[in-house]
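Bug #77: duplicate submission created two jobs. Keeping one. Sequence:
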Amino acid sequence: MKMKITVQALTLAAGFSLAAQVYLACFRRGFWRLRERLRPPAPPGSDASIAVVIPARDEAPLIGQTVRSLRGQKFRGSLRIVVADDQSTDGTAEAAHAAGTDQVISVTVRPPEWKGKLWAVASGIRAAAGAPDFFLLTDADIEYASTNAIEALVAKAERGFDLVSVMVRLRTESPAEKFLIPAFVFFFFKLYPPASVSSKGRTAAAAGGCMLIRREMLERIGGIESIRAALIDDCALAKRVKSAGGRVWLGTSPLAIRSVREYGHARDIRSMISRSAFAQLRHSTPLLLGTIVGMLVIYVAPVPALFLGGRLTRLLGAASWLLGAAIFLPTVREYRVSRGIALCLPAIALFYLAATAESAFRYWTGRGGKWKGRVQDPLSAAR
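Kept job's structure:
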């Protein structure tokens, strides 16, 4: 009797899993196709003015590469680079100066109601001279290796968008990065389909490593201060822009806009996910439990169904597993890693679930959002 109940439960789970995969493949705005692409611009180019703001805390090994890549851009307009040195202790300011930045400011002590990165960004924006057409908010580990990358961002914005954001190409050199990083992009776009982001609907998202925003729109929404307490600041900014009637574009790019930050081990990637995963779930225990159950059923259940069930159960499990791999495959190809990784999505999903559970545990124990010595998502802030 117990075996029969187990098989029935597996059959039901496999059937639900297949239905969910069909929905993702056909009715989730084609997020997995990666069709929203930032492409090389057509001549002659733009005369817009841009202030680049780079928040940096203990980024001496990386900041020089970022600044030099921006300095090497072929851009007709004006480009001013401001590095906001957020109380670094490793020579970040000196490295930025040596690479050719226009200005380095020392960020003052953060007010308690602000997140550290956002206080640094706001400080950099205040220090930027004049009234630029756009602000480029970019991280200290982002290299703009294509010399027309900035031109492409501006060209996209000038097609009617107030916020243009690119999911930069993340590093995939270590075994852990090759196995786990493509899924980060896949799951992000599953939550926020780029086609929905660029439409007039409510879906709003951005990728914080590279965001170009119109100065007028930033002023309209009340500046960075309007999202000063947001841990997931990129999506919060996109939401504010959309709520103010602005247009947002999110996508990938064949241009070499890439992160050079190393995640050499699985624990590094786990830590990166756990910094904000529970905040993404709005610190909700019911949402956490729902996420765990949903991910287990959609991605993991097909594996035991394939090996332990009857003929129908095995058929449903195989169909769901293969369809899940098929819609994951374009992201795997985008990152030029082994295509066999697409079949490993059940195991990868388990890893992401463990990191999400760890995120909740860190939050409950007062260590939420820890980054470079700062606890950015403390439980006390929610009380």
